[in-house]
Amino acid sequence: MFDFISNLDGPIELGLLYALMALGVYITFRILDFPDLTVDGSFTTGAAIAAVMITHGVNPWISTLAAFGGGMLAGVCTGLLHTKGKINGLLSGIIMMIALYSINMRILGKPLISLSGSDDIFSTWDPLWLMLIIVVAGKLLLDVFFRTDLGLALRATGDNARMIRSFGVNTDMTKILGLSLSNGLVALSGAVVAQQSSFADISSGIGMIVIGLASVIIGEAILGTGSIFRTTLAVVVGSVIYRIVVALAYEIDWLESSDLKLITALIVIIALVVPTVRRSMRQRSMARRRSEEILSGSGNGGA
């Protein structure tokens, strides 16, 4: 256990690398209430764009920004399918996820591109500290955006689209904006993960939506959702805790690296079930206390 604690830098670094993806999932899952499966494709899109540009000698920072733009474009396509094409949200995401697989293969040219020997954003920076700066900056920018009129309209769209339309807000536009911002952050995460791991893989995005959901749910269960600042912080913390839990799970001898998906599913189930059980126990306790108070009052009245 002492060795594990002394090696926590690795899980924390991984958690920060995927925190941007978790923030993107939070926008669609919690704010827009939109089941966006585009994430599994846009994560790889970001990794592919950054990897191809870097291997062609483009500045890694420009490549990373281009990956963000590519993800936003994927989100816009999903938004247009849903709002203008009148396609169900879940189906829109699935269609884009499938389409992005072929697009990503076109971008990469082959299933895997190695970045070994190429300059990347971590060449002159410590990955842990650089990601901490990037994630904190991204979180604070999101907090500021969600307090603007446009950000408030985006939040209101997920809460009550009919009401916000009555105030003259174009909810189609806010949905497209939310989806593009979400997938931009997911692609950005894919770009930094590819650079940190020194390769971009066509299958790297598979299962990202579940990992993002796990991070959001774990963070909310621990820190709560009192304000936007607190909620986005919870998502970042949830991403880090998820990686620490996965690392702890790997300490169990009979678990293998291929069990990651199973571990993720179990973490999500626990994170979803535990708050429900706690809420149910609290309600039962309150009901029991009220019953005792009523009986006590009846008893005193009889005396």
The rounded Rg comes to: 22 Å
> What kind of sheet is the major sheet?
2 strands, antiparallel
What is the terminal-to-terminal distance?
A: 61 Å
- Helix fraction by DSSP (H/I, runs of at least 4): over 70%
Beta-strand content bin:
under 5%
Strand order in space, largest sheet? 1-2
Report the total helices.
Answer: 12
> Which H/E pattern describes the elements?
HHHHHEHHHHEHHH
- Give the total of beta strands: 2
Average predicted confidence as pLDDT: 88
Indicate the low-confidence ranges by residue numbers: none
Shape from CA axes? Answer: globular
Determine the structural class based on helices, strands and strand pairing. mainly alpha
Could you explain how this protein is built, in words?
This protein is mostly helical. Helix content is 77%, strand content 2%.
Element layout with pairings:
Layout: H1 2-6, H2 9-31, H3 39-55, H4 60-83, H5 89-108, E1 112-114, H6 127-145, H7 149-159, H8 161-166, H9 171-197, E2 199-201, H10 208-223, H11 228-250, H12 260-302
Antiparallel strand pairs: 1-2
